[in-house]
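fyi for ur records
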Amino acid sequence: MKKILFGLLTLGTVVLGGCYEDKGNYSYNFGDINSVDTLRFTPEAYSSLNGWIIDFMKSGEADTVTERVTVNPTFSDPDKADQMDYYWYRQYTWNGQTVKDTLTTPGYMDVLIPENGNVSYRVILELRDRETEISYFTQLTVKTREWYTNSLFVLHGNSTQNQRLGNVEFLGDEPTITLDAFERSNTDPNLHEPFKNARVLGFRMNLYDAEMVVFKTNGEAEVYNPFGLKRLQDTYFVMPPVAVGSNLFVAKTLINEDPAGASNDFRCVLSNDGRFYISRSSFRFYEPGLNTENTEHLTTDQYRVSIGTRTGDYYVFWDDQGKRFIHNAIGGNSFPRFDTDGRETASLITPVLDSHIDAGILAKLSGMQPVYAYMNNFNYFQSADEMRFLFYDPATESNMMCMLTVDGGGGKTKAVTRADKDEESTAMFAADTLSLDGLHIEPGTPVVYTGAYSLDFFFYADGSTLYRYNVQSGDQDIIYEAPAGYEIVLLKFRQNTDYQLWGNLYRYLSIGLNRNNEGAVAEIKLTAAGDLDESFEPQLYEGFDRITDVQFCNERMYTAE
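which gave:
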């Protein structure tokens, strides 16, 4: 038996070799074969690491419902389209039983969505030419999904006490905008407007679960499964207990620089009053250094951190109170898991320490205001050790970058200009300073960095304009202009690094926009060089109140085109 293999490589399909018995019909010419050029599905298929997927939202109906998948092929010879037969080979589980069947419906396949909404069809579609008996194959998964899977959450409101959690969901060709996602999906009678005083959103995921953390202005924090918005953990499990008479820990920002699925999975949350907590592998935070025996440990009344970043081994911060850099080693800590035993007394071992940066470096930063910090971590996070701290000088209305490098305590530090001149001394981290020509970024300006590009540049907003700034060259390039009347107030990538499981999610940048009491979110896509990707039309999602924060939440194997 001879066998002939054909694959289909087109937009909206995945390659799958096909095999059939050779019937001995060789009367055709290969130039006359009616090939399949493209396949498009309705609903639209999207790519994942497991192949192409078509989603149907859970119906919420009491009875089983029927949904339809249609396929729209284009052929090299459209006049011969009617000589194609369609075979849908399926495997799925129904009522605990594995079902395998074959449909021969021309151009469509009906699927059953059960009452509980959970079903997944593994499908091989064969298009067979009756004249030549040549077959073309593609493979896909048709499944149900929870509300808000692989979607953008939008925290919005016109005061700190009337926030709502909105959502932009991508199912099919058009986005679905929901102004109050919790009200739409809530099935818990004990929860009422849980996001009304929300302030900061964060996201993590591992092999088995996804979590979205919500920090609030009253010092509380909760963790939700973002897909369906079911609450997983309340404040007791998320934040350390606050002693009677102590100030509330009100989150200002979440340092989330590590890929959420990586083994080195740490996060740090900063408060308005300069404290910080650290977590690992879950959103369960602890105060650093409470169990240390190091006599040089800095207590929370001895520092006030404003910006910070991390390497594979350290969190490093600017201390506004002491006008210095301080750090906390990540290794050596034990992070208790989700049990109630000892929650009130659990804390971390590693101390908070003065980094002892050379006085000459600190002198150059005298009078400057901290703006933003990031780790220059192109390509491989765990080995990255170069930190960037951006400062603003109100006297000269200019910016300076302080660059720290992990050096184990024996390195040299120096203050430099672009001409690279000044004296040296010894310190915990090697340090340089660099004057940033032509830059005027004040505290509070939206700034964002992604470790996905080989050049050291970051993005910032000035009014309605988004810029890319190259640290090495000093070049500034306009990347995006907001619609008339809007001001850019927030910048956040879908993912902040080029992680192997998430395709190019790091290229999608969400832009929070405010115009008076109106809010909107724009989304652009960047190229591998950090330019605007002209193949992706910038999106604008309107109808929100003023934007407070955004957060994209995705499944582990989700990728974007």
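Confidence is low (pLDDT under 50) at residues 1-24, 409-426. thats all i got for now
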